[in-house]
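Recall the central idea of this unit: under ordinary conditions, the amino acid sequence of a chain determines the structure it adopts. In this exercise we apply that idea directly, starting from the sequence alone.
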Amino acid sequence: MDTGALADAYTGLTRAADALAGPAAADVPAAAWWTLAHVALSDELIAATAEQVRAGQPAALDNAPAMAPAAIAELTARPWPELVGLVRRNAERLLAVLREIPDERAGAASVRTRLVDRDGNQVFAGEINWAGLVRARAEEHLPGHAARLTALAGRPPARPARA
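Accordingly, the structure predicted from this sequence is:
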């Protein structure tokens, strides 16, 4: 698969994260911590699905673990630079797996998908084309998170409360 657009989207996200922290990660707004933790967790799930697609197996993706408050709290307990580093590492793992998927397989693969919102409410359940899912991540999801981080740069700091 061509991963150029997705790699660019990750670069934009991590640049926004780096710029947001500046010299003091303690000044990072709570919403930014949540966003990066969510992305890191999502990337682990998407990479596992990518491995299924690469292997030609039936593929499924459920984002509930990437929205789980306990999982988010665990990651937001890490120092900001470590969380940004985790996003970078997970992105590289995902990109590496995607590069091994032939374009024709990516275009033909259908992924059984379940998506939930922050409150755990199901917002979608159905089949999604794999290449379309990756394209949406590159063109909408990650750029949206990068824009959110950029917008948060002007907000008051508040690190999330620990669970």
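Residues 156-163 have pLDDT under 50 and may be disordered.
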